[in-house]
Write a structure and sequence with these properties.
Number of helices: 14
CATH superfamily: Dipeptide-binding Protein, Domain 3
CATH class: Alpha Beta
Strand order of the largest sheet: 11-19-12-18-16-17
Largest sheet: 6 strands, mixed
Length: 527
């Protein structure tokens, strides 16, 4: 079942491309046309970067998020087909505007053999909910101000304010067992959860090995590890080069992986099984923190108007991009509509130059603008795994900004480094990094407030007013207000999506389903 995914990076950062449950190609069927499943096999999947810190509540990176699916569970899960909520750790639940209850299944155990209890759930909620712990999941997968109590096997969660999609958030919040809560340092390179697999070997930047838990019976909608074809072990292999990953898929050394462009076409032509779906593939963020030139609204708008983002979509997407329509695009999306097209500042280089002139950014003899002795220089960062399209797009943006009189310090960084850059050092002014979610409330903590997750230091009063209205309306009935809120972010050039991407996850020797991530209990090894 799908856990809505935060991607820190672009689509290509994901352990696998984001995909739905449609498929194509040869699945390795038997002579009779039916797939033949085998037990005791190893499932190997390629990821484009190392996950870094493996603490599931302290790392919002897409690779780590995928890896945690094998070792950690949530209270409930969301069906990837229609978004409906199904059981996981909890078999029963109730929801109203400010209170949720969860009744845990009987007999849940942790990988270390200890019991998983309602009190453990409360500890998890208290930890993520404490702003001092700086969990990037606070506000995204746990409403700010939520508190919890336990009685028997029932957990009651009280919200500080109405939350339209609170139950969806709890389908995304991974639960850690007591020993991991007691010593968070043990979660940096090991696992301690209730999930279907346990990490047994970690070799950073090379591979991670997980072994199946044969007694696991509390998966999404009652899924277990006893089904025929469930792999006995899983190897997550770090393969940074997309062409190498494609070659490994073709040879059968890797059973699952995501790739794009010409490499993807090679795999399609070879008849490999794949799944696909559309999600956000590119976002531009501006740092409004103190001391950053992008704190000036005129600079943000000018940088935005100086680029034709329809052209940029084609360059970065290498002809495979699609126009973006909203911030919460990951299927199944809670709100369907277009918050981007009408709100996006129009491409107009003359207007961009006039904005800077009016704001006092004077063109110098060296071709760089300055204001009160401060040069108009930006630190522009983008994620390495955007690949050739990302590099070409970043170079195009740099040339267009330089023509406007902006000096650009361009750097590409891998997922681990770029997370440190945006969340810790703040050594950036413009960054291409994509936040993929399935409901609009999940971006709130990243674009408002004073938590560490608001890495762009965004303070948009129109957005705040719109989400305050939207939060009082349950579910999809409030979508118009949520979309209006997103439009306020785009119009002010605080952050905006400039491309959707079609992601494909390819398989060889295995079948699987992909929602926000590859679903661990959907994997079946083929004979």
């Amino acid at each position: 079942m799908k856990r809505p995914l935060i991607i820190v990076g672009t689509l290509a950062v994901g352990a696998l491309a984001l995909a739905g449950c449609s498929g194509s190609g040869d699945t390795g069927s038997s002579e009779g046309g039916e797939a033949t499943y085998v037990d005791g096999a190893t499932f190997t999947m390629a990821v484009s970067a190392d996950g870094g810190l493996l603490d599931p509540q302290m790392n919002a990176g897409s690779v780590t998020n995928q890896m945690t699916q094998f070792a950690y569970d949530s209270l409930v899960a969301a069906d990837p087909a229609d978004g409906s909520i199904v059981s996981q750790l909890a078999t029963e639940w109730t929801v109203d505007t400010t209170e949720l209850t969860f009744t845990l299944a009987d007999g849940i155990t942790c990988a270390d053999g200890s019991d998983f209890t309602a009190d453990t759930v409360v500890r998890n909620i208290e930890y993520v909910g404490d702003p001092a712990n700086e969990s990037p999941l606070l506000g995204a997968f746990l409403p700010v101000g939520a508190t919890a109590t336990a009685e028997g096997n029932v957990v009651t969660v009280t919200l500080a304010a109405p939350a339209s999609f609170a139950i969806n958030a709890f389908a995304s919040l991974p639960m850690v067992c007591d020993a991991g809560m007691d010593d968070r340092s043990t979660l940096a390179s090991a696992t301690n959860g209730t999930g279907p697999y346990v990490l047994t070997e970690a070799v950073p930047n090379d591979h991670y090995t997980y072994e199946v838990r044969e007694d696991y019976t509390w998966g999404p909608d009652g899924a277990t590890t006893a089904e025929t074809g469930v792999p006995a072990s899983v190897v997550v292999r770090v393969v940074e080069n997309e062409t190498t990953a494609a070659n490994l898929l073709l040879s059968g050394e890797v059973n699952a992986g995501g790739t794009g462009g010409a490499d993807a076409q090679r795999l399609i032509d070879a008849g490999l099984f794949y799944t696909e779906t559309e999600s956000l593939g590119g976002q531009q963020w501006h740092n409004q923190g103190e001391g950053h030139v992008t704190a000036d609204p005129a600079v943000r708008l000018a940088l935005t108007q100086a680029i034709d983002y329809s052209e940029m979509m084609d360059v970065v997407g290498m002809g495979q991009g699609a126009p973006p329509t909203s911030f919460a695009a990951l299927a199944p999306a809670a709100c369907v509509g277009d918050s981007v097209t009408a709100a996006m500042p129009a491409y107009d280089t003359e207007a961009a130059a006039a904005l800077l002139d009016e704001a006092g950014w004077v063109m110098g003899s060296d071709g760089v603008r300055e204001k009160d002795g401060t040069p108009l220089e930006i630190k522009f960062r983008y994620e390495t795994s955007m690949g050739q399209g990302g590099t070409a797009g970043a170079e195009l943006a740099t040339s267009q900004w330089e023509a406007l009189g902006v000096k650009v310090d361009l750097q590409t960084q891998d997922e681990t480094v770029i997370q440190d850059t945006i969340f810790n050092t703040g050594d950036w002014d413009v960054v291409w990094i994509t936040l993929n979610v399935s409901s609009p409330d999940q971006i709130i903590t990243f674009v408002s407030g004073e938590s560490v997750t608001n890495f762009g230091h965004i303070a948009n009063e129109e957005y705040e007013a719109a989400i305050a209205e939207a939060a009082t309306v349950p579910g999809a009935d409030g979508c118009d207000a949520w979309l209006a809120a997103e439009s306020a972010l785009v119009a002010s050039a605080d952050v905006f999506p400039y491309m959707n991407s079609l992601g494909r996850t390819f398989g060889n020797g295995a079948e699987f389903e992909v929602g926000g991530d590859l679903e661990p209990l959907s994997v079946r090894m083929l004979g």
